[in-house]
Amino acid sequence: MLSFLKNHPFAVEAFFERSIVLTFAVPEAALRHMIPPCLTLDTFDDKWAFIAVAMVRTTGLRPKGFPAFSGHDFFLIGYRIFVRYTSNSGKRLRGLYILKSETDKMKMQVLGNIFTQYRYTTTDVAQVVSGNRTTVKSIRSGLEITCEMPQEEDTPLPVGSPFADWSQARRFAGPLPFTFTYNDRKRQVLIIEGVRQNWTPRPITVVDYHISFLSELYLDTCVLANAFIIKNIPYHWKKGRLETWNG
Questions:
Q1: Which residues have a Cβ under 8 Å from the Cβ of 167 and sit 6 or more positions away?
Q2: Domain containing residue 105
Q3: DSSP category for residue 3
Q4: Phi and psi for 37 in degrees, rounded to 5?
Q5: Per the count of CB atoms within 10 A, which of 28, 76, 83, 212 is most buried?
C-alpha cells in the first residue's frame, strides 16, 4: 500500500567519517545472472566485472535540510556490483547494483527498509583503529578485514590485480555516482544519484581479509583488485527518480 515510500522519496544527507572499500575482480560471466536485465556489467579489459565491499562509518544521516541533531549515526557494510544503465533519454550512467546491505543499528534497518529497497539487516560491527592500521570485524556476518595506510606514496597494487596502475584502479573506487534498483513486475528502474565533495580516495594495503558473503557466492575466481579509503566527506543522495525500462 505504501510501497512508494521505498523509492527514496526525499533527499538524504550524511557525513562519511571513514569509508573503506575493497573491490574484487570476477570474470564477467560469473556475475551476469546477478543483475537485472535493465543493467549491464561495468567491465574492464572486456573480461573483468567487479564487486565492491564497502565499510562506512556515517554520522548525521537525516533528510536533507534537517538540523544536524536530528541525524543518526551508524555503520554500514554494503556489497555492490559495478554496473551501467542507459536511461530513456540515452544517457549512459555508471553506478552500483545492491546485493546486500548490513548495519549495526536496528533503527537504521527499520527506517532503511521503509524508505529504500536496499534490504538492510542488522549485524554486529567492531572497528578498531590503531596507528595506521584499521580492523573491521563482524562475527555474525563472518567478516574481518585488516588494512594499513601505506607510509610510502608508491603503494603496490594487490597481487593478481587486473589493473596496471592506480589510475586504472581508481575508476573502480566506489561509491559511484548512481545506485540502481529494479522492479521486475512494473519494469521500473529506480535511479538514485549521490553527490559528494572533496572526493580523493587514497590507496591502502590490505593485510588480511575474510568475507563470508563472497565465499557464499561460490565464485571460481575472485581477486582483490584494489582498496581505497576516504575520510571526512559530506555526502548526500538526491530524491529517487523512477523510469520505465523499455528494453
A1: none
A2: 3-244
A3: G
A4: -65, -20
A5: 83
